[in-house]
Sequence to fold (82 residues):
Amino acid sequence: MSFDRHLAEIAREFPQWTIWRSDAGRWWATRHHPLSAGQRDAGCAMTIDADDPEDLREQLRDQESRAAEREGPRRRTGPAPP
Fold:
């Protein structure tokens, strides 16, 4: 599979991140939004890199898991469902 296709698939899977491949062949991702204090405390990173697309996916899943565990359930801001 071409690296362009990998980039597109990972970007669809992780829409809160910008994904790219450097000229040196490293795979990178950076968050669209700054980290909260809780996310930083949980070991979340603003930018990560990997040797290949599968390692990047694995790291992204780990980052998403860390962020979700630290932030907990989100409060509902709209009206309650009927």
User: Anything to note?
Assistant: The chain has a mean pLDDT of 87. Strands lie at 17-21, 27-31, 47-50. DSSP finds three helices and three strands in the chain.
